[in-house]
Amino acid sequence: MRRTLVLAIACAVALPAFAADERTALTLYRADSDQLFQTDGDAVSPDGYAVVHERRAFDLKGGTQDLSIGGLPAALDSEALTLRFPGKGTRVVSQRLLLGQGFDGAVAGLVGQTVQVVGPGGQDLAWGTLVQGGNPMVLRDKTGALTIVREYAALRVTGVDTVARGSTLQVRVDGGSAGNSTAQLDYPTSGLGWRGAYVATLAAGNGCSMAFDANASIANRSGRDWKDVSLKLVAGDARRAKSAPAPRRMALAAPAPAAMGFSEASSNPTPATLGDLRTYTLRTPVDLPDGSVTQTPLYDSRTLACEREATYETGARFYGNAPNVERNMNLFPPDGIPVSTSMKFKAFDSLPAGYVRVMLADRDGNAELLAEGRLNDTAKNEDAILQLGNAFDLRAKREQTSFTAAPHQIDEGTRITLTNAGDSSRVITVRENPSRWRVWSLVSSSVKPTKSTSEQLEFKVEVPAHGSTNLDFAVRYTWTDAEIGPR
């Protein structure tokens, strides 16, 4: 059957018009998947989770009646969809969800609208109320007569503003009286989600302070535009039993993804608690076009104190039931372990999980990316720690300086040479995990340890610019025959 993928639109509305107090409300949950935030051509994403609360207006005839609700997201959960009419008169007998699939999905969304069917040569084939889309197409004229159309090129539609690209819900209702009625429609859907998007711009100098911007990054790849909606963002880990649906590509062309931008909300969201979760309710309605990523502020920008740390850690700990008496244990890679860097700051309020881009102004005045780190859900006054990567100018070289083994004792000396090729002095935190046996003691060290536990030693070592510093220490391991487990 020949059908050109064109719907000629003469003038205005796709969805029922709502009064101001009937605005659609979206509750968006945190999305951990990067795929949802990538506009890679898929019109619908299986990631993300949202609950939609909207109202639909109907002209009820009384008795048994079939209704069609178009413009629904293409990835909604049909098993959790509910439609409720006010009062006790009208009840839902059955409901069927038609998944949006290209041209046929768009036509299904026009059921109940007045359409004119155009043939391949541009001639008018039929006119009336669309009763059934697809093949064949069924229309009902003013006299009640049905017309069945099998081959056509286009539909000309009056009274619509845009064609729904999502799914269509067909509902049979029974009972109630005739007249206008507004029903409550609630359903969860994938393709919508949000996460924290933070920018930390470090101040120049050897200290550590930063300008901190906290935003919500909101992705919509649900297969539907959302206009002038009330928005609530839920932070935390809300468990879900169902797996996400498989992604589908939509044949009907959608608008190009909108560029990431800031919403026009004039004030920050209102924070609150929801059980063990955290919510942020936007004070101003927003638009979320399909295939877009929108940002809106969570908190006002502020300056925060921070702490940067360069760390060298062996990562090796003792696991076993007998001491390791071999001189060379080969626990460390031949090219050494890099010196990693991190940044720590205290959360001024609850910070939902997301990504933090750490920036620093270069000599030309442009702020450049130092690192991007993952921030987990962080409660107020907790420390947020970001891993920034390996330090380019800092190096560590490890060598064994002495080793003796006796029947119940091992003495081992170690030197760690720390070098700094940068223009300013640096403090490197060395974390040593004695790994030959679980009972050990520090015999001597060239730098006094700042922390000592049953598993780890920690040293703060200052390394001058364009120079090096040696950290020498000796560890003694002791045991008895009774402490040795079976080999």
TrEMBL record:
InterPro entries the UniProt entry points to: DUF4139
Q: Where is the signal peptide?
A: 1-19
Locate the DUF4139 domain: which residues?
184-479
Recorded superkingdom: Bacteria
Q: Which stretches are annotated as coiled coil?
A: none
Enumerate the UniProt keywords alphabetically. Signal
> Which PANTHER family does the UniProt entry name for this protein?
DUF4139 DOMAIN-CONTAINING PROTEIN
**Protein name according to UniProt:** DUF4139 domain-containing protein
